[in-house]
Write a structure and sequence with these properties.
single chain, mainly beta, four-stranded antiparallel sheet, 1 helix, 12 strands, globular
Length: 153
């Protein structure tokens, strides 16, 4: 298991940490793990993202209001952009966006200054690197809520 990204948000009285992991073995997967330091005796919690290697995970820049975590994950064939809001399951509030036939070796997420994950027209951008001279930049939009859409730009 390898840690592929880490993000931290301060929730007022403590930090919450999220990490993404990947497994280098075929048909075995990593995940997303959360540590809430406000809980006494904190322990890492598996957020049960599913059968995915996760190459990037971030808190929404407006996390203290929208409680959204966004991950870029792969089933080793396709890429999925998946979000989790509050204690709901991954993909329950906004459906997964899918990029077919692209498996990321690395990825990044960028948010506009006014990003608000709970709005009906939340937009952010994802950069995918396949590691083999492939990938692109995609605009992710929840304008057609509850489904997310991708557009190559």
């Amino acid at each position: 298991m390898a840690v592929t990204s880490i993000d931290v948000v301060n929730t007022g009285n403590a930090n919450t940490v999220v990490v993404s992991t990947t497994d280098t073995h075929a048909a075995q997967y990593g995940g997303v793990y959360l540590l809430d330091e406000s809980q006494g005796g904190s322990a890492w919690v598996n957020t049960t993202i599913g059968n995915y290697d996760t190459c990037r995970v971030v808190f929404s820049p407006n996390y203290n209001n929208d409680h959204q975590i966004i991950a870029i994950a792969s089933d080793e064939t396709n890429t999925f952009i998946i979000s989790k809001v509050n204690t709901l399951n991954w993909g329950q509030t906004v459906s997964n966006a899918r990029i077919n036939a692209i498996a990321p070796a690395a990825a990044t997420i960028a948010f506009p200054d006014a990003y608000n994950g709970i709005s009906n027209n939340a937009v952010f951008f994802v950069g995918i690197d396949t590691g083999t001279n492939g990938g692109d930049v995609y605009k992710i939009s929840s304008a057609q809520s509850p489904a997310a859409s991708t557009r190559r730009i």
